[in-house]
Amino acid sequence: MKPTNPAAARVVILISGRGSNMKALVHAASQMTNVNISAVISHSANSEGLAWARAQGIQTEQLVYDAAGGQTRVQYDQALAECIDRYQPDLVLLAGFMRILSDEFVRHYTGRLVNIHPSLLPLFPGLHTHQQALNAGVRVHGCSVHFVIPALDQGPIIAQAVVPVMADDTVQSLDQRVLVMEHKLYPQVMRWLAQKAVFLDEQGKVGFTEKLPLQQFYADTEYVS
C-alpha cells in the first residue's frame, strides 16, 4: 500500500457489485501521488468489490438499504451522505452504483460527484445501453464520464471514449469492448479532477485550466474525445 499524501485529493468510491471500475481506479491511484482512495462504500449485502477493496487495505463501508424496515430513499441517502462525509472527500466517484440518488444528495456533492455511463451520452441513457446501441444500428458506441446532476444521466460530460460497433457484435462482445475503455477513461478523469485541471464552473458547465491542453484529451487515452 502506498504512503498517504495528506495533500492528495481524498476520493470515496461507491459501488454495487463486482466493482470492476473501482478496481481500475484503485490500481491507477496506487501510481498517483495526488490521489488517496479514502473509502469504498456499497449498498449491497453481497458486494464482491467490497471484499476486494478490503483485501487491498482500503477502508470499506456496507450500507444496506432497508426497504423492508420502512427506510425511505431520502432517509437512506441521508445516512449515505453522513457515512461519506466522515471521510471529508474531495471527490465521490460512482463506479457501477446502481441506485438513483435523491436530488438533495446530488446537490450536496455538486461539483464533486462523478459517474461513468456505458454509452456516448446523451445517447442511450438508463439501463441496457449496449442493447440500445445494437437496436439503433449505430456504428460507434462507448462510455462517458460526467458530473452528476439531479436529472439522470444528463450531467455535464467531462470526457468520452469511443469504440467501433462490429456487424457481428452481441451485447456481451460490445460490453467487453466498452469496458476496456471505461477502465482507461475513468482513472484518467480522476487524475484530471484531482489536479483541478477539470472542474464544474458556476454556470454548471465543465471548465478546464491551463494545466490541461485540449489535445491531452485525445493523446492520453485511445479513442478519447
From TrEMBL:
GO biological process: 'de novo' IMP biosynthetic process
Keyword Ubl conjugation (UniProt): no
Enzyme's top EC category: transferase
Catalytic reaction(s) noted: N(1)-(5-phospho-beta-D-ribosyl)glycinamide + (6R)-10-formyltetrahydrofolate = N(2)-formyl-N(1)-(5-phospho-beta-D-ribosyl)glycinamide + (6S)-5,6,7,8-tetrahydrofolate + H(+)
E.C. designation(s): 2.1.2.2
Gene Ontology molecular function terms on file: phosphoribosylglycinamide formyltransferase activity
Sites where the protein binds N(1)-(5-phospho-beta-D-ribosyl)glycinamide: 19-21
Span of domain Formyl transferase N-terminal: 10-189
Residues with site note (Raises pKa of active site His): 153
The protein's annotated pathway: Purine metabolism; IMP biosynthesis via de novo pathway; N(2)-formyl-N(1)-(5-phospho-D-ribosyl)glycinamide from N(1)-(5-phospho-D-ribosyl)glycinamide (10-formyl THF route): step 1/1
UniProtKB keywords: Purine biosynthesis, Transferase
Catalytic site positions: 117 (proton donor)
Short name of one Pfam family: Formyl_trans_N
Entry superkingdom: Bacteria
Sites where the protein binds (6R)-10-formyltetrahydrofolate: 73, 98-101, 115
Protein function: Catalyzes the transfer of a formyl group from 10-formyltetrahydrofolate to 5-phospho-ribosyl-glycinamide (GAR), producing 5-phospho-ribosyl-N-formylglycinamide (FGAR) and tetrahydrofolate.
Protein family per UniProt: Belongs to the GART family.
The protein's name: Phosphoribosylglycinamide formyltransferase
Organism, scientific name: Advenella incenata
Underlying gene: purN
